[in-house]
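In the design runs reported in the main text, the only information available to the sequence generator was the tokenized backbone. The following block is the verbatim input for one such run; it is reproduced so that readers can re-run the procedure and compare outputs position by position.
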């Protein structure tokens, strides 16, 4: 939306904004799902269900807020409101990034466990690598 606000309403700007949004969303959701599952440990199923619930709530709240804003003030403030919300999310991520998804220890950053038996039970750990 911010890209559209700065570049205007040309078809090229629209296509560029959609492409950037699609790539960013696809990458972010995959990383968020893996990080939340890794951080949750044995409560992975609960973490994944909460993640899906929050994503769906966000997908419902976005159009609700956008529709209310459009109905009361028109399309003008939509890109700037979206940019403001994005900035707030970036600030929240910067403040909570290290505590929301704690870093793992050891040589293999993707491994959340240290024994081969634990690694076989952990679907997020590659079985081709071992920790030493």
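Verbatim output:
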């Amino acid at each position: 939306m911010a890209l559209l606000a700065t570049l205007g309403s040309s078809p090229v700007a629209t296509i560029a904004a959609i492409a950037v949004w699609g790539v960013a969303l696809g990458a972010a959701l995959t990383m968020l799902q893996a990080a939340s599952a890794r951080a949750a440990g044995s409560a992975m199923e609960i973490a994944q269900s909460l993640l899906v619930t929050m994503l769906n709530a966000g997908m419902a709240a976005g159009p609700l807020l956008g529709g209310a804003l459009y109905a009361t003030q028109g399309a003008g403030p939509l890109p700037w409101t979206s940019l403001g919300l994005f900035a707030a999310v970036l600030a929240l991520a910067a403040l909570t990034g290290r505590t929301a998804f704690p870093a793992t220890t050891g040589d293999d950053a993707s491994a959340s466990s240290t024994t081969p038996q634990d690694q076989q039970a952990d679907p997020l750990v590659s079985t081709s690598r071992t920790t030493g």
